[in-house]
Amino acid sequence: MGMSDENLVPDDAIRPGLEFVYAAHAQLAAPIQIGDTPDGTRRIIPILSGSIEGPRIRGQILGGGSDWQVRRPDGVTVADATYGIQTDDGAVIQIRNRGLRHGPADVMARLMAGDIVDPKSYYFRTVPEFMAPLGRYTWLNENIFICSGARYSDSIRLWVWRIV
Q1: Which residues cross the membrane (predicted)?
Q2: Burial 74-88 (b: 16+ CB within 10 A, else e)
């Protein structure tokens, strides 16, 4: 039994939407190079500090986290960052943020060299997963989120949305 074209695209009642959650800015240390491995070139990016600000959550990014990256042979960088935030009201929340960054070779070379590059010229999307204490921030544990990012020489900016 086949589906008609009208059944392929969901109507607005079931189409996911987006709700803005927060913007983040983090300071990063210089990359620690692991080097070439069987699955690509690996490096660790230590996360030093930062802040988040949104309509329902505000706080500081705790130092001690890091992004364990691999640049695959196809040029795609796979990000896998784990870090913590402390909200302005004292809650500590763990975040694991995994995703992909890629773009035209010349744009990515400029980005790796530390140049300021328009984030619209490359793809940088992640899926943050939150481990929040029960209570005021339980909603972080119960939803799926997506993130757009921008990378700079010693910092990163992230914008997070809840999929509704």
Answers
A1: none
A2: eeebbbebbbbbebe
How many Å is the Cα radius of gyration of the chain? 18
Per-residue pLDDT tens for 47-82? 999 999 999 999 999 999 999 999 999 999 999 999
User: How deeply is 59 buried, as exposed, middle or buried, from its count of CB atoms within 10 A (0-12, 13-18, 19+)?
Assistant: buried
As a whole number of angstroms, the distance between CA 70 and CA 80 comes to 9
Topology at the third CATH level for domain 16-163: Porin (2.40.160)
**Helix, strand counts (H, E) of the chain:** 2, 10
Report how far residue 58's alpha carbon sits from residue 64's, in angstroms, rounded to the nearest whole number.
19
Q: What is the pTM of this model?
A: 0.90
